[in-house]
Specification:
Length: about 350
């Protein structure tokens, strides 16, 4: 079978990242199937210099999340005649002064981001709602923005074992702004109203747990490697995504593939992911969230089969692989540099 990214000759791909994360690694693996890939991982001034240096030996800048690193690379690349693709996932088109969340809270970062979005050949939004955010914040017509959701492997995220009548939430939270954006405080307040239902939250930094004053039916666990997440999803009947803001939540889609009944807020693309296979409530409403969680725990077990089918149909790796191939092909004739920003892409 022909490689979908084969454009006739090997090309070099430099992946610059401040961290390793699943959505970054997934795209890197797709590109590495046809390109010679090297990675430079880190953050701070040294990482910025490495990214900038890489532009001089590259022709395409592929920026996963718009950050200062990515914006500088795109703008420098534009001066040097390089082509560029930016993937936006949420925090990179967010501005919430109240919580301090989002790249655009900082005026100088917003200045760079605005110009980078306009300069890019393509901007790929993982959720259609993010296109509107980018257009509004950057003040342009969004002519270069395309919708391309992340893809998920149903062979890895599988059903199996008995479902327990409990609620699971997975959220990579390491600072207070993200704690608020992910709605963990709302979930804790909802859990107080349903003391008979166990709730497990995975991934929140232990520093923030005492301030939430969780009731006895809420258990906080530290973050786990990706390989261990399927076991958590398979054991819970209900998955909760209580976010105040979202792109396309990875954990929600993963949990649905593992047969969880979803309860999510109307933030971002969560409602699109859930469709008619679960429950959608207004963001920031603990009463509505508690009611929906209670209904979900009591729902027929077969409902989980429909959730798996929906994600497996809507968000395929094959689609992402094919569309990335088309986009890179439209910029063919160049070597490539893949730049990953310092903004977390694990949108649990």
């Amino acid at each position: 079978m022909d490689n979908p990214l084969d454009t006739g000759r090997a090309r070099r791909v430099l992946i610059v990242s401040a961290f390793h994360a699943p959505c970054i690694d997934d795209d890197a693996a797709i590109i590495a199937a046809a390109y010679k890939v090297s990675r430079a991982t880190g953050s701070g001034p040294a990482a910025l210099l490495r990214a900038a240096r890489g532009v001089f030996s590259a022709d395409i800048i592929y920026c996963w999340f718009l950050s200062v690193y990515g914006a500088v690379a795109v703008l420098l690349g534009s001066l040097l005649g390089r082509r560029s693709i930016i993937v936006i996932g949420g925090v990179d088109v967010a501005r919430d002064p109240g919580t301090g969340y989002g790249l655009w809270v900082s005026p100088w970062k917003a200045f760079l981001a605005r110009r980078a979005l306009r300069a890019a050949d393509f901007v790929l939004a993982v959720a259609e709602t993010l296109r509107d955010d980018a257009v509004r914040l950057a003040g342009y017509d969004g002519r270069n923005i395309r919708y391309l959701p992340t893809g998920y492997d149903p062979g890895f995220w599988t059903e199996g074992g008995a479902k327990e009548p409990r609620v699971l939430c997975v959220a990579a939270v390491s600072d207070r702004p993200r704690l608020a954006v992910k709605g963990i405080d709302v979930l804790v307040e909802a859990a107080r109203r349903i003391p008979e239902i166990p709730v497990t939250v995975v991934g929140v930094d232990a520093r923030f747990v005492p301030g939430l004053d969780p009731p006895s039916n809420v258990t906080f666990l530290p973050g786990v490697p990706r390989a261990e997440l399927p076991a958590h999803y398979r054991g819970a009947k209900v998955y909760c995504q209580p976010s105040r803001r979202e792109g396309l939540p990875n954990a929600l889609c993963e949990a649905m593939l593992c047969g969880c009944i979803p309860v999510a807020t109307d933030a971002g693309a969560s409602a699109h992911a859930v469709g008619d296979t679960g429950f959608i409530v207004p963001a920031g409403d603990p009463g509505a969230l508690a009611d929906a969680l209670r209904l979900a725990v009591k729902a027929p077990g077969g409902m989980g089969d429909r959730t798996r089918s929906r994600i497996a149909t809507l968000f395929t790796l094959e689609r992402r692989r094919a569309e990335l191939s088309d986009l890179l092909g439209s910029l063919q004739g160049f070597t490539a540099i893949v730049l990953i920003s310092s903004a977390p892409c694990i949108f649990f």
